[in-house]
């Protein structure tokens, strides 16, 4: 029997497509998105559609201008009659799904996806704590993207809900295929930027204050005094681009720091191919999906301690975690990473398929289980 599932999610982003495709293969799924693009990011919709293997619809706007007060979801659920509903985070939308469960289908299974890092989970504001408290008494499963967050939930939130760890990762095989398809462009870029014999440091992301790219630039200037064969490539755009460029103008003019702007699709893959060491310097980062992408592309990764994606790092094996906003610690970890002789190759320590198989199995078990409240 293929269970009927309704998935409600904020928006389509490239790092969630493999996850949604796999769920669509395993179950009879209807997808409903709140927004046509993530609120803080924009992606090439044509590029995304090439990878999407499911149809989807968008929810109507929230009532009275309240973005999550989308009462139309009640009508959708009455029409779809799902066995299970996925909802994102602890919001009014989740409460509406719970309302449907109370009045129309008590047997409905509810799954919450939560992208919080540990700091966000521990320091949730009063409103979020209240909604979380209520929902966790009735939902069946919470999907958490960081293992430390899962341990904290198991220790601190002993309610009906079960907790499952599944980081935001992409299909290894499909991502590596896209990297391979971009190799010819990578070769041209290597010649264009005179990268032969150079160690390439890479950053991919928005150029905004919370990403803390200034820390990376300062660390690079520090290390460059010791290692002149370094090049830092900055892939991305944002409000701070001009001020960041002014900060390192001499190094840009000498070709040691290269700002290339925002890249997507084949171009982005080409830059991942060039990187030897990837740095995520954020001072605020719920997860940080670029860490998974960098590891899949063979980069040794230096990841800020605040990023949820730090759970993907095994110290001195595929990367290092440095203390957020600590220049000295980043320089030490950067110096160590440059001392390693690394070959390009998939540096993820587990596969998307292994997590997906376990998750689908757990969802099947939830549909069949009795009213147990055991936390696994």
Automatic annotation (TrEMBL):
Sorted UniProt keywords? Membrane, Transmembrane, Transmembrane helix
Residues annotated as domain Glycosyl transferase family: 194-343
Tell me which domain of life the UniProt entry assigns to the organism this sequence originates from: Bacteria
- GO MF terms held by the record: glycosyltransferase activity
Entry-linked Gene3D superfamilies:
Glycogen Phosphorylase B
Pfam families referenced in this protein's UniProt entry, alphabetically:
Glycos_transf_1
- Family matches, as InterPro entries: Glyco_trans_1, Glycosyltransferase_grp1
Membrane-spanning regions, if any? 84-104
Q: Report the protein name in the record.
A: Glycosyl transferase family 1 domain-containing protein
Tell me the lineage of the source organism: Bacteria, Pseudomonadati, Bacteroidota, Bacteroidia, Bacteroidales
């Amino acid at each position: 029997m293929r269970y009927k599932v309704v998935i409600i999610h904020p928006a389509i982003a490239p790092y969630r497509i493999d996850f949604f495709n796999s769920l669509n293969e395993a179950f009879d799924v209807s997808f409903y998105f709140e927004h046509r693009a993530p609120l803080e990011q924009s992606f090439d919709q044509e590029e995304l559609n090439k990878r999407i293997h499911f149809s989807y619809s968008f929810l109507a706007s929230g009532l009275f201008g309240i973005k999550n007060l989308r009462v139309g979801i009640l009508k959708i659920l009455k029409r779809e009659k799902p066995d299970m509903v996925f909802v994102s985070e602890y919001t009014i939308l989740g409460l509406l799904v719970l309302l449907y469960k109370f009045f129309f289908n008590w047997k409905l299974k509810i799954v919450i996806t939560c992208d919080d890092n540990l700091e966000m989970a521990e320091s949730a504001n009063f409103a979020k704590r209240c909604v979380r408290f209520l929902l966790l008494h009735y939902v069946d499963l919470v999907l958490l993207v960081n293992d430390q967050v899962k341990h904290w939930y198991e220790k601190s939130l002993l309610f009906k809900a079960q907790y499952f760890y599944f980081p935001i990762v992409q299909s290894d095989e499909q991502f590596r295929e896209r990297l391979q398809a971009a190799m010819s462009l990578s070769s041209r870029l290597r010649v264009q930027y005179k990268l032969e014999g150079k160690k390439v440091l890479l950053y991919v992301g928005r150029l905004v204050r919370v990403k803390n790219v200034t820390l990376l630039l300062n660390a690079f200037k520090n290390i460059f005094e010791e290692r002149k064969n370094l090049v830092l490539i900055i892939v991305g755009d944002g409000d701070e681009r001009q001020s960041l460029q002014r900060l390192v103008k001499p190094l840009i003019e000498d070709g040691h720091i290269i700002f290339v702007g925002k890249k997507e699709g084949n171009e982005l893959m080409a830059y991942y191919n060039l990187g030897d060491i990837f740095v995520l310097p954020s001072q605020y980062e719920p997860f940080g999906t670029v860490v998974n992408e960098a590891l899949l592309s063979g980069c040794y990764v230096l990841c800020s301690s605040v990023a949820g994606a730090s759970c993907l790092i095994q110290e001195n094996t595929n990367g290092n975690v440095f203390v957020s906003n600590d220049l000295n610690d980043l320089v030490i970890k950067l110096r160590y990473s440059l001392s390693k002789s690394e070959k390009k190759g998939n540096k993820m320590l587990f596969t998307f398929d292994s997590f997906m198989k376990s998750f689908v199995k757990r969802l099947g078990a939830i549909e069949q289980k009795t009213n147990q409240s055991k936390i696994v």
